[in-house]
Hints:
The protein is α+β, with helices and mostly antiparallel strands. It has nine helices and five strands; from the N terminus they run H-H-H-H-H-H-H-E-E-H-E-H-E-E. Helix 9 (184-198) links the parallel strand 3 (168-174) and strand 4. The longest helix is centred in the middle third of the chain and has 24 residues, at 76-99. It starts with 11 loop residues before the first helix and ends in a 7-residue tail after the last strand.
Amino acid sequence: MAIKDWPADERPREKLLHTGASALSDAELLAIFLRTGVTGLSAVDLARQLLNQFGSLRALLEADQATFCSGHGLGTAKFVQLQAVLEMGRRHLESTLSKGDAFNDCDTTRRYLKHRLRPYPYEVFACLYLDNQHRLLAFEELFRGTIDGASVYPRELVKQALHHNAAAVILAHNHPSGIAEPSQADIQITRRIKSALELVDIRVLDHIIIGDADTVSLAQQGQL
């Protein structure tokens, strides 16, 4: 049965308009993006098939062009459209964060950092530079690889913080394993960075660790 023949409250578009996007399943959201199905499959059926093929919505969204286009009913045009949608989402989050109070708006900060860092298959250490009212001055990805004392250099972070005339910073890095729980190395490097920045009167407000589903704040854990 075609989606247009479904009861109105079960059609993805109508459901989104009446209940909001958060009420839709991954398959329903993907079906709206696909717009149409293929022979023998409605857009929702095709979406379910694709989610089974890729394993998850995240895997589909983060697939490279060749992998994405291997999906039934997908192609270069859909890949380009998806990349545009994802980039608009990134820019919207960045704009929201730039206009707000980065530290006090913790949810927005975490969403932004998660969106920026979670997709990487390797660890990336980044920093949000803030002014004296905790508004965002800049975001930078500073180091890549295993996050430990040998790969993160506090003096480089101090140099960049002074370059941006920051009064405070929020540190962040991802755990490609998907587990956000901080390691002893994470705690040690955070304390080293904090000590280095204190010498130039710059505060470390938090160090947020990005996992697959969760984020962990070292400040909330009392590790600062």
